[in-house]
Amino acid sequence: MNRAVIDPSWDDLKTFLACARTLSFRAAAKKLNLTSSTVVRRIGALEEELGFKLFDRLPNGVQLTREGSRLVASATHLEQGAFDLQRRIETFDPDKRGIVRIAAMEGLGAFWLMPRLIPFQRSNPMMVVDLNATDRLVDVSRMEADVAIQFAEPDNPHVVRRRLASLHVYPYASRRYIELYGVPKTKAQMMDHRLVDKVGSGQDNGTWPNYLGIDDIEGIVGIRTNSSAAHLYAIERGAGIGDLPTFASALAQDLVPIDVGIHHRIDVWLTYHPDARRTPRVATMIDWLISSFDGSKFPWFRDEFIHPSAFVEFDSRHWQDSQAAGYAAAGFSKELP
Length: 337
What we know:
Distance between the termini: 78 Å
Family: Belongs to the LysR transcriptional regulatory family.
Order of helices and strands: HHHEEHEHEEEHHEHEHEHEEH
Pfam family, one: LysR_substrate
Keywords: DNA-binding, Transcription, Transcription regulation
Domain HTH lysR-type: 8-65
GO molecular function: DNA-binding transcription factor activity; sequence-specific DNA binding
């Protein structure tokens, strides 16, 4: 008697790979935007189809069985083939129609890219721009995004990587805060002020202690948040002194740089799959993103540090997409021209 042909569902295999990478049914469900019960059901169905266990269930997650470990490489090969097929199909459309998915660090995505994406999309009406503003690193080789902007240098040898710009970070306070508490002149005087602290997976959470030369900043932090929008709002509304990209001076009249010898530079990286440029709409987006971080147009992205006071009256003729506005929603009192 011939053995029945094994034909596992591709959805089940994708679920298996997510579980193998996270070693957690719950984390895999979150990654796939599924319920945990759906993940458990799919893994059970795949194990029944294959005739062997893929995972040992543990109190704090799962671990691959020997058979499951052997299956990972083959399933990954199938996954990559599916991605390659999808990229190839998308190159057949000569028009710039369809979705372009950008992943960008939350602050850059919300406060730098989005105001410029609005006029960009108006100029490319057949294109749907999907901006994922997240501090989580995404894998462009697995099509989690078409193009990503991140602070960490990509270490995948199979993707294109380009250093886009330097992001200079500087302490700021609002005029409202300064009227109440004054301006610190030294790092030592900063200890008598309140800090607004930004934390998160894409952040260096030891930045403030390094700035001030202390082990712990507890006791001088007034507000801590993992949201760039909340961080900016708190500083602008007078909650304390916080570090912001220096282009904040070009966007907000109420923010004042605090000169106490603190400055931090962060590399900004662009990454995408080598085949991405074969798709016209993605190639257009890549070129636009590169121009959006051009230091000759936007001096705050140059490698050399320029004091943010130089940007307060920055010539609006040099702004790209200068009709973009909307920063008042985040508490800014000054809009782009």
